[in-house]
Amino acid sequence: MAEGGGGSALVQGLPIWADIILSAAVVTISAYFAGTTLGIFTLDRIGLQILSKASDDDKERKHAKTILPVRERGNWLLCTLLIGNTIANSFLSILMAGYTSGVLGLVLSTTLIVIFAEIIPQAFCSRHGLWFGAKTVWIIRVCMVVLAPVAWPLAFILNKILGREVGNFYTRSELKHLIQIHVENSEHPVESGLSKEDHQLLSGALDYKDKRVTDVMTPLERVYSLEASVRLNFATMMEIYKSGYTRIPVYEKDPQEIIGILYTKDLILVDPDDELEIRTLVSFHGKANAQYILDITPLNEVFLLFKSSRTHMMLACTLSEPAPGLPSGKQGVLSVRSQQNFLSKFSKKVTGVITLEDVLEEVIQDEIIDETDTFESNEHSVPVVRRPGRDRPDVSSYLALFEHKIRDQNRLSPSEVQAVSAFLLTAVPEFAIFASVETVLKGLVRQAEIIDTEASDSDGDDGAGSPGPEQQLYVRGQRSSHFTLVLQGRLVVHAGTEGFQSEMGPWSVLGSKSLGTEPYVPDFDAFASGGCRLMRIHEDAYRGALRMGKADKIVGVRAMRQLSQALDIMDKGHDDDSQGRPAGRSPPKTPNHDAPRYTSSAAQYHGHVRQLPASPSAISEGEAEQEHPSSGQGLARRSHSAGSLGGRAQGDSGREEPSGQSGVPPQANGAAGQQSDAFSSDLKHVV
After folding, report:
1. Which residue ranges form the domains of the chain, and what is each CATH number?
2. pTM across the whole model
3. DSSP H helical segments within 310-353, as ranges?
4. Least packed by Cβ within 10 Å: which of 70, 252, 330, 591?
5. In angstroms, rounded to a whole number, what is the distance separating the alpha carbons of residues 626 and 448?
6. Please, are residues 639 and 681 in contact by the beta-carbon 8 Å criterion?
């Protein structure tokens, strides 16, 4: 061994500090090759292609594009890195042999190589291999050129024996599990960007092709269908609308003999009075839309068939006998290619219907519920539960407005009352005060006057005939005390000095100012054009509802019940006075311990009416109904005292008029009195 130098022949004559520097450089080179080998080869070609085109990080996308050309030469790159690492480790052992020997040399060289040339670089590059490889790719290119005489022949032999590297590909089940890992990984939920809803949607898209028509179709016994001879009168059309379906199969005598599809939108121009047979409407285009599909067809082929056929519903069927030349269980193969021609050659049996919505529900793994659906699922007859709120569409409430066509009634049905009350609350400012006491508003609407007018015989084709007196609702310059809501039909209004004519359709209102504090005199004439259905509310009934609503909010339900009982006692006393008692004689005095209490409650009520706050708190309708359950006697109760109460409250409002100068015809006062009495009786029944 030379003095002051290393003992190796390769480095003989070098000072010890130079040997140390050289050894550190060799360890660094070995560490580079070891770390690069692990860092780059953990990124397969497919992964790098994904990162280079779809990464959300611009730096990652740039690094992947830099490494990908080198990574494409898999075996050549592998041989280069391994040969370089081996040379570096061997040279390090030679350097260490000149200074150590035996066990000490083995331990020292192993420690340097394992810790500094293997563990540390590989641990770093396993996490930052993409960044490190992109920054040092030029070194890899130089090494590949320098070691090409040895590395390239070895790579060529490996390619011939093992084949070229393809990359990692996943099956559908592996992809599902990979997505699940990305969703359920609690350590990096934000990095993946996938939610449980994404997992559900992606899994459904991967699985739906494994399902067949029989798995998602609606069986024929649960299909809503109509017989071809049924006439489209109003009752039938209401039944169709309430069913919630937009496409309805039509059959001839036997449900198996489906002749076409009835589209609900085609009923828009159908007049129920014509009572057309359904087969007449279906004959135009419904038969062409009755397309069949084998019930063993996979859903992915069904989806393609829906796209090509431009229809949203098909009839699922099965062949009555196996098709010749077609193996059993393979009949779904022809579902897309010439399916209609194929099925037309064989007898078939309808087993159900399938819609495009059924296929999409399997993809998104959830039920699609629209505004007209009545059930959540075709498999389970679970009715749709609508969330409360007037801002949500309620088809049943809308259709209830037309039910008077199929039944005779002078009052609105409960569903009609609900729909009209909701409209008045949101569209007519005069009724917004009832927002917190909807029970009172519903009672007012329930007792409102319903007017059904018939078409005038004098009406011409243009509807400009001379209407009769019973069809004129408002007279220019004559005081009116009614609010009118058009439920059905049209009103003709003549306004202005020249009598400009306009029309008002359903859900139009007239005379809302008559509900104010000042007398209302219209400056127009209004007539009912043809058959109309109108709802009218008299100003007295409206003010009675206002008083009852305000008292309901202040006094409470219990005091309102005491007030109702007090009014009954006053009714009874009035009846006793009118039953033939001689004039000038007082009624016999009988002890009545309850009368003072009821009288006090009534006085308390009137005191509160005079001290109404601006926005009192409301009580719920459910509390009122729970506190005072309805009884049949309340509906039959006479309302003389309620009429008296209305007269007293009218005095409170400061709108007393001289006798004979009210401007309201006697018959109008009589009708208004009956409406107010009926409303007061109904309110007493409510409280």
Report:
1. 16-162 (no CATH), 172-210 (no CATH), 213-364 (3.10.580.10), 398-436+447-540 (2.60.120.10), 542-575+594-654+665-686 (no CATH)
2. 0.48
3. 339-343
4. 591
5. 25
6. yes
